[in-house]
Amino acid sequence: MPAATPPADDHTASPMPRGGARAGAQRAAPRHVLLAVLIALVVQIAWQASRPPALARAQDLPPAPSLAALQLAALGDPVAMSKATMLYVQGFDEQAGISIAWRDLDYTKVVTWLQRVLDLDPRGQYPLLAASEVYGGVTEPVRARLMLDFVYARFAEDPNRRWPWLAHAALVAKHRLHDLPLARCYAAAIRQQATGPQVPPWARELEIFIAEDMNEGDAARALIGGLLRSGQITDPHELKFLSDRLDQLNRP
Using CA of residue 84, residue 86, residue 91, residue 92, what is the dihedral sign? Predict the structure, then answer.
């Protein structure tokens, strides 16, 4: 009886190459699909590049809180709250992605904020400095006057310490606003109220020079004579300077 034919060994069958299915799938990706993806990517990049850049929008300075609200938030440390509030106001012109010119701020609101800062710390000088030398330095007269008037209004509360800012306000009124009467008003307040020994002679005499600039020789002579008779001036050099100035004004 003939021997039975052994069954075919599975291992002897032609094997499928490893990775053949994967390679077949890759070869099966149509070229037009790849081209469509590439075109879509190019269109997306071009669209993003053509969009205008996002514009940062300036926020308006909010109204200042009430003094009572700030005192409550200070938790017993009004000086620290005063400094923090001043930093907030001072930094408001620099917002994320945009810089705001001082002239574009609402100066009525700025004045109110500065008032709050000064009320929290009456011995602080920075609000008056900022008003006279920073915000008051704008070229727009209306805004500048708001700041100078704020300095003048708060000067009388502590004239022997706040005279420098009113003196600067007088110079701003004279040289930038070209308003000699306003400058003289500020200078007169210094002469009349800032009588402490720490006030320098030039500050007390500022009104004299402004009066001369106004061609008011009689007023300048009267001011010098009043200072000489007042007894406030004891420095020999200052007395000599005023006497010489009076002699010059009296010459025909």
Answer: positive
